[in-house]
Write a structure and sequence with these properties.
Chain lengths: 233, 177
């Protein structure tokens, strides 16, 4: 898909430029575009370095774990068909709290682990379960408290108040996530009762210790190496 | 309402910046050293974006310079003008769910062309910041565990992107009028 979009832009540009007699402008634009790609990335360094530093403090102090715990009633409501003490729950909470703090790189491995755990409950290994769809919906509309990348770009282009979009972004992200949850619920109901979980033997001894704690252990630098990762910004 | 929004924007970041180290110090975390340790990752994160961002910036910059962008937007401009929505943000709404680097490049291009504090710049920033790349998330998450039948997941993701896109425009037009 991304390949086609990219090709579309380039081919259409050259064809339209040829018709319009703007071939020189397009050549110039290609080099200018490459240059601004680098400039923007360099502009991100300052904020990324600062924010990831702050986030490491948050991680070491257990703020993310706390956040995960605060989220647990919500998560239980969102995932009614996952047993409350199943390992998937811990990963889901870690994934959501990492998203909240704008740690895409930490959120992805957590999300994949959650999916792997959900897959263990899945009777049909090729078809998504409702719980998987819910987790996906939450991740595609990810609630983010601080849109660091955007603040950095606005700063680079000389905004008088780079952070003024925090409030509007927060409001829009809430609306989008709300819509995702509603749509997910609607489809869930329409598609009937979920398939029964695969045999799951609950480990009574670890009932209260959710793996949220161990789940947060890999450092933020644990960038996922999944294919397609180059498109995540 | 407007008051509240500007308050949140002004206070959220300082609040986080002061709360986290204070809480960490209280929990006996060596705050400065931890900060430096974590900050090292920021450099790599920013640099890793270069290849995809350069690729997308080149494509979008060419698309604008060739006149193809105006050609494409010309068709829908009357409708958007009638709704008093800036037409320029429309491609962003289409790109956002499909490619993260592409929509980021497009946002940067809009900010560079119209200014970060213009209505277009603010709407673009809000759209880009408020959702994630649906197609990417779907591919990575389901790809990792071998799910082929994704049921309604894509529909839900795209629906929420559409709602987020419209919400971003309406909220910005209301707050920053």
């Amino acid at each position: 898909m991304v390949n086609w979009i990219w090709l579309f832009f380039i081919v259409v540009s050259v064809v339209v430029a040829a018709v319009n007699g703007r071939i020189d402008a397009v050549t110039q634009a290609a080099f200018d575009g490459a240059k601004s790609g680098v400039t923007i990335s360099f502009g991100l360094i300052s904020i990324m370095v600062f924010w990831l530093g702050m986030m490491r403090i948050a991680e070491d102090a257990g703020v993310l774990k706390k956040m995960a715990k605060l989220l647990s009633p919500v998560v239980r409501w969102l995932f009614p068909d996952v047993p409350a003490n199943h390992p998937a729950m811990g990963y889901i909470m870690s994934n959501l709290s990492a998203n909240l703090f704008g740690l895409g790189n930490a959120a992805t491995p957590m999300g994949i682990k959650a999916m792997q755990e959900l897959q263990k409950l899945n009777p049909d290994q090729e078809t998504a379960t409702p719980a998987m769809c819910t987790l996906l919906a939450l991740n595609t509309s990810s609630i983010t408290l601080v849109p660091t990348t955007l603040i950095a770009i606005r700063m680079n282009y000389g905004s008088a108040n780079p952070a003024e979009i925090v409030g509007t972004t927060l409001a829009a992200t809430f609306v989008a996530t709300g819509a995702a949850i509603l749509a997910d619920r609607w489809y869930r109901r329409r598609s009937g009762p979920p398939p029964a979980n695969k045999q799951y033997t609950s480990d009574k001894t670890s009932g209260k210790a959710l793996p949220a704690h161990t789940a947060m252990d890999p450092p933020i630098s644990a960038v996922s190496t999944v294919k397609g990762g180059g498109d995540r910004v | 309402m407007f008051e509240w929004f500007t308050r949140v924007s002004a206070w959220l970041i300082p609040a986080i910046i002061v709360f986290i180290p204070l809480y960490a110090a209280f929990r006996k975390v060596p705050v400065y050293e931890t900060f430096v340790e974590g900050a090292k990752d920021g450099f790599g994160t920013a640099i890793n974006i270069i290849p995809s961002l350069v690729g997308m910036m080149v494509a979008i910059s060419m698309f604008r310079a060739s006149g193809a962008m105006d050609l494409m937007l010309g068709a829908v401009r009357p409708l958007f003008d009638w709704l008093s929505i800036p037409t320029e943000v429309l491609p962003l709404g289409i790109l956002r769910p499909l490619t993260g680097a592409g929509s980021l490049a497009f946002t940067a291009d809009l900010i560079a062309t119209h200014g970060p504090d213009s209505m277009i710049g603010r709407i673009a920033s809000t759209i880009q910041g408020s959702t994630d790349t649906t197609l990417y998330v779907l591919t990575v998450y389901f790809g990792a565990i071998g799910i082929r039948k994704t049921k309604y997941a894509l529909k839900v993701g795209l629906f929420s992107d559409l709602v987020g896109f419209l919400a971003a425009i309406m909220i910005c037009m209301y707050i920053f009028k």
